[in-house]
Amino acid sequence: PSALSQGLAELERRVGVELFEPAGRRRLVRESAAPVLDHARRVIALTRDLADWSERVRGARAGRVRLGMIDVAAVVHFPDVVRAFAAERPDVALTMSVAPSGALLDQLRSGDVDVVVCVEPPASLGGVDTEVLLEETLVVVGPAEPPEWGPWVTFPVGSHTRELIVAGLRALGAPIDIAAESHQPDVLVQMVRLGLGSTVLPSHGLPDDVPVGAEVATRRLVLARRAASV
Predict the structure, then answer these.
(1) pTM of the model
(2) pLDDT in tens, 63-120
(3) Strand 199-202 vs strand 212-226: parallel, antiparallel, or unpaired?
(4) Residue 185 and residue 190: Cα distance in Å, rounded?
(5) What is the helix (H) or strand (E) element at residue 138, kind and residue range?
(6) Between helices 101-110 and 160-171, what is the axis angle to 10°?
(7) Which residue in 122, 133, 95, 107 sits closest to 226, CA to CA?
(8) CB–CB of 152/188 below 8 Å?
(9) Residue 178 in contact with residue 155, Cβ under 8 Å?
């Protein structure tokens, strides 16, 4: 009671108006103080709203997530995860960028995206933490068999997957004759159909009408984030 009385007196001092009147051992709000009471109620409601917002943010139920994914992660492996995240967290502004692994990691380091799902880089990157999500088998797609393998249609120079493919083909003794390039697996499959050569792609989600051959390599998809980020 003593602390409450002191608080009420301090409130009256700050407002500069008598807000309370004695009623025996009680103190009642004066009718003339109704505007102050209404203001206080609005402040309490707004404070409660702020507390609710803070809880949503701290519980990852509000805010913004800028996601970067390679195409196979977005289309084949994790579309259900993205849909579930968006449904469970409607107050989170979710955006997605689909690009090759190298470009996504550049966007991550520059701060343009918050989290990336990509092919594991060949060497660790300063300021980037990675966590393995899954492994994929890379197989030959095309009509040719060794030693008649090639020419090849594959990912462009600088692609992490291309480096794995070239190393795997060399280990198998296959000639490396590159006839065409594309970042898009669907385009590479179409090039095979057109007779431009063979390719090497993840075994997941390949069309039924293309011949599948030997395993060439294994690649790992990782979740990449900026080190020490919140």
Answers:
(1) 0.71
(2) 889 999 999 999 999 999 999 999 998 989 999 999 999 999 999 988 899 999 999 9
(3) unpaired
(4) 9
(5) strand 128-141
(6) 140
(7) 107
(8) no
(9) no
